[in-house]
Fold each of these.
Amino acid sequence: MALIRFLIRRILTGIVVIWVVASASFLLFFARPAETVARSLAGRAASPAVLQNAINQLGLNQPILVQYGHYVSRLVHGNLGFSYYDQESVNTILKQDLPPTASLVAGAVILWLIVGLGVGILSATRARSFFDRFATFGVLAGISLPTFVLGELLLLVVFLPLNEHGFHWIQDGYVGPSGGLGQWVGHMVLPWVTLATVQAAVYTRLSRGSLLDTLGEDYIRTARAKGLSERVVIYRHAVRAAMTPVVSQLGVDLGALLGGVVVVETVFGLGGLGQVSVQAVDTDNLPVIIGFVIVAALFVVVANIIVDMCYALLDPRIRIT
Amino acid sequence: MSLLEVTDLRVSFPTADGVVQAVRGVSFTVEAGQTLGIVGESGSGKTVLTQTLLRLTPGGDISGEARFDGIDLLAIPDEDMRRVRGAQIAVIFQDPLTSLHPLFRVGWQISEMIRAHDKSVSKRQGRALAIDLLGRVGIPQPQQRVDDYPHQFSGGMRQRAMIAMALALSPKMIIADEPTTALDATVQAQILELLLELQRESGTALIMITHDLGVVADIADEVMVMYAGRAAEKGSKHEIFYEPHHPYTKGLLESIPNSSAGADRLKPISGQPPSLINLPTGCKFHPRCIYVMDRCVREEPPLVAVGGDGWHRSACWLPPAAAGLGSQAEEARRKVVNKARDGEAAQVAASISGSPDAEGQVIA
């Protein structure tokens, strides 16, 4: 019950967060002189008549509160407006470009968690072994590799040679999973590796350190003194306790993830939300920018609620606070 | 045959700064159903000593023998050791706040241990046993509290839960490592009483580790006083409290407020326990001993009989007649010391009496 109350409270706070983000975006873009805003639609060199037309069309001559009222009521109905560039619905644009981004993010997160936690746990339980030293070296290398360098490197040493030698499974561009899982993975595997490498290194270091700390705790000594097998002591008692800082770190990283996605999408020509938003900024396409900001905020809020739920499930001490 | 027979146990830890000699040749026995009190300051090796019996001291170089019920605890394979832990020898640790796993329910943690040793116990049976045990150690409404997490328990209740866990499999011996140190004074007495009562009911042997002589006075049959990784003095509770031979034991007694040994003022033992990496020469207590003699600086005294029946043993060069707290014993000690002190020992003695917390002075 406490858990459900906790969930409801987090959802309500999440709604407030999205409202604040939406309002801030509105203020940022529309609390400016009507003509400045209108130029986004009409173009920089527009004649006064065209500009006036744009002002009328966007309703910019109405009081700002009335505009805000329209804006909020539109959002509440799930309508993100229309692109200034080609009058297409922003909902449609974002819907089209969501799949590559969602594929990229989901796959990369799963990959980095599996690799990061797996290597971290093996390293900690074999501290100072050859494997541990090798992993520590790998972590340093992984952390030091910028995403754009790694992406280009993978294209150069994996993608190009394979395709030259008639092995065409690994491809650039984006194909959804509906076109065959194998093909989807073939298109996504390099982007996944690119996006996940740095994070996998960070999570290896984090989970190794956390598990080593936990193994020194009094309750681990208690577990051994109870006569539990070493496997149970490590995987049931230590790993579970060691995961709490990892989970809270995940909440932070998921938020920052959408920013890093742009680079990978561009390097591998995936399309996707990141690329769309960069284009929208270039062309001063306000509705698309605001739409992306709201979708990004929604993503961060939902990801954080999920992470907090995991955290609460993992650690009973969180729930009552 | 005794239940536990430890012979010449030595434990050392190699570190970057040198070898830490935590335990330097300790021998003792524990009879079934009896209570041995091990007393000493922090760093005297008492915790390492007992944890080594269950091989809970990773990274230590261990030698010696520890026969428990016919098996050598230090030589059996890991899997056999696992079956001894919890089932034959249970441990109650010092800090109940950190010794229970924070993420698991208290009852589950008890049940987990029972089920680890007896695969035939179902989850439901394990839970029922846990409720029963929590009730036995005085936790109110155990049916509800069994599903609580440790953070919902007070410190005293957590230690009760630890005791419940220790009792779960009716072990032959329980090692209690300063079980009351982390608790409030009022709760301390309750926990001690509970331990004693349960021990009487179950006939379990008990090793009680403590730095508090008051605790030992309450519950021990035999007492071993440890200093710098060795036994300074061993004997029955009566011998240790009324006929102490080793100046360290005497010093401990005199530093208890309102004890029979204490005069109007507290007499603290001056100085600090020695570093276990760089131990002093001779008797390891001599830099703090007001009865220091020349021989103490050069030679480490063996643990020899000082009492009538031979069970009262002390590792001190003072003659057996010097045992006791009375003025006669003090006179005997002074007489010996005055004859056997010149040169080095005189210097040590001078530095002790010159230190700010020397005998007879209390720092406010």
Note: The first strand of chain B starts at residue 4 and ends at 15.
Amino acid sequence: MIQLQNVHKSFGANHVLRGVDVTVEKSKSLVIIGGSGTGKSVTIKCILGLFKADRGKILVDGQDINTADRDAFLSRFGMLFQGGALFDSLTIWQNVAFRLLRSRLKKSQDEARLIAIEKLRRVGLQPDVADKFPAELSGGMQKRVGLARAIAAEPEIIFFDEPTTGLDPIMSCVINDLIREIVVEMGVTAITITHDMSSVRAIADRVAMLHEGKVCWSGSIQDMNQSDDPYLSQFINGRADGPIKAVR
Amino acid sequence: MISTLALIGRNTLSASATLGRLALFILATLRHTIGGPFYIREFWVALVQIGWLSLPVVGLTALFTGGALALQIYAGGARFSAEAVVPSIVAIGMTRELGPVLGGLMVASRVASSIAAEIGTMKVTEQIDALVTLSTNPMKYLTVPRVAATTLAVPFLVAIGDAIGIMGGYLVGISRLGFNEAAYLKNTVDFLEYWDILSGMIKGAVFGFIVALMGCYYGMNSSKGAQGVGTATKSAVVAASVLILAANYVLTEVFFSA
């Protein structure tokens, strides 16, 4: 279970997170929605320790992330980055098996390669991409490789940062279905940040909406569909008019 | 008046902050060098890219510099009938000063820029964040292998550059200035001391450390976007070049002041 309690984070004068409170139950999928610049990425980067929260507590299975052993803590996580964040200088299989070739989970080259190819298959890629470099793949394929890398070490918790950004609607649907399948199949706890409502409906058990650095609404998908919260309603219906100010 | 003072104050604070960050970065690099894991593959890749692939540019620079140096010393020495010193001055000038400084500057332009651009691009495309989430420390994975490889490679590049530079002087000496081949070589060897070569190699190690450190520092601190990477690349080359020249003066004082 992941708990964020009154988490604050500023960058200079820019107070991005202003007291985020959110809980994700074990083996459940939370999707965080909200406009650009509302702190969605900062929230997950704070959980991973990429940014240190200025105030508040972040607990993973009851343990404060600041007191946890960093290596052991990170070995429980997988992350799919918005742009894939694949390492340009490594081949696809080396990217997927990165953790298996280095950290405390270290395996032999042959074993790591076999696992990488199996994970590539799992995300719908043929073994012949294994020896290519990231620059040789399309955006959708890079996302799949990123997904394969995120699940390669069988993590307990996976974060997905805008998994469908930059993809066409069909590829978005494929990636959403893959994420849902993987989350259910592996029984992982997942947090996804997105502003793509088709992703929300495909992936989420629960939804939290961030606005001005705080969770302004949270609930299940059914609650979301029936809610008359003005912020949520404006966002999910994509209206320019409403309480959320849109810059024209 | 107040705005001028404010500008000076802002720049002073900014420079102090940069110096502080740089000092912390150097300490972090040294700290991560001591403890494991050490990424051997990344070290070898850096050694080949930085050492081996810099050889042509360092060699050509040394060759032409040695040749030009021979011509200059001959022309200058002719004013007081000291043309015979050409071989020894070329050898001493190359090994003590021009080999390490010009070699260091050429490596700075080639390597500091490429390290800063590569790491800067990794930063803006979240590859460095990805390293962290994959339980890999970016300082150990990116900075330590590059700094170690450059610090080790540049002294050898300097030594090879010294030899090529002396050869450049020799070629010009015998083909253009009428020196006897055997006499030129004898004069070179007789006047050259081990310390001349060693001091240049020590300078090379320091310059190599500076070059990689500047590339990594500016790459790691690159701001977002193509402009951020461009600025990081430019800053890395400028900072490395200036620091090489400053360090060269300090080392020359330490090694050779009476």
Note: The CA atoms of residues 100 and 153 of chain A lie 7 Å apart.
